[in-house]
Amino acid sequence: MSYPAIGVESVAMILGPGAWFGELSVVDGGPRPHDAVAVRPTRLLHVPLGAFEQIAMAHPILYRDLGVLVCARQRAALTFMAQAIAQPVSVRLARILGAAARAAGPDALRMRQEDLAAMIGVSRQTINKELKRLERAGMVELSYGKIEVREPQALRAIGQRDTAEGASLASSMR
User: Fold this and answer.
1) Which of 20, 101, 118, 145 is most buried by its number of CB atoms within 10 A?
2) Residue 122 contacts by C-beta under 8 Å, 6 or more apart in sequence?
3) How far apart are alpha carbons 15 and 36 in whole angstroms?
4) Rounded to an integer, what distance in angstroms lies between the CA atom of residue 117 and that of residue 126?
5) Can you say how many angstroms the Cα of residue 92 is from the centroid of all Cα atoms in its chain?
6) What is the pLDDT of residue 109?
7) Per-residue pLDDT tens for 115-134?
8) C-alpha atoms less than 13 angstroms from C-alpha of 101 in its C-beta half-sphere
9) C-beta of residue 112 within 8 angstroms of C-beta of residue 118
10) Local structure of 112: helix, strand or coil
């Protein structure tokens, strides 16, 4: 989570088991730009910067691995920005729900519509309208504070297509 304005939360990433985060501050030594929030019981390994630096002095390849992780996040951010500009809301929503479902595993997503809206860059009302369409199509089930993905493959199919195909597939469920 980040806080781009006073009183406003923004979901930056949704990560699943085994994911690393916090690498940016290891690279530049700056403050952490995000808060991590666990939505279910979690085991977390925190590696203090000093400990990482000691290990990396003995095994310099760790810095390369860290660089690869940073590059992967940078590529994902650039891809997300390009898609946010070029793709319709329905395609962006399907892509985010598909990825979040993959990260959540068999559990329902505990995500507010406001968070989804912020990730996609639209209003909560627009997200609600699109989620209702997905629910009518049997792809998701909505309840207070959570979204259960019923058809992750169908969502991924919408999200993996190019803009024209994804929009066409998404509009066919209206």
Assistant:
1) 101
2) 89
3) 10
4) 8
5) 11
6) 79
7) 888 888 889 999 999 999 99
8) 20
9) no
10) coil
Taking Cα atoms as reference points, which of 44, 6, 49 lies closest to residue 25? 49
Mean pLDDT, rounded, of the chain: 83
Domain-by-domain residue ranges, the chain? 2-80, 88-172
**Hey, is 126 helix, strand or coil?**
helix
In whole angstroms, give the CA distance from residue 169 to residue 91: 9
| CATH code given to domain 88-172 | 1.10.10.10
CA of residue 136 relative to chain centroid, distance? 24
> Residue 71 corresponds to which amino acid?
C
In angstroms, the CA 6 to CA 30 distance is 21
Instruction: Report which of 165, 91, 99 is spatially closest to residue 134, judged by C-alpha positions.
Output: 91
All residues at 6 or more sequence positions from 85 whose CB lies less than 8 Å from its CB, including other chains: none
E-only strand ranges, the chain: 2-5, 8-10, 140-143, 146-149
Q: Burial, 34: exposed, middle or buried (Cβ in 10 Å; 0-12, 13-18, 19+)? A: middle
Decide: pTM greater than 0.70.
Answer: no
What are the E-state strand segments in 28-130?
Answer: none
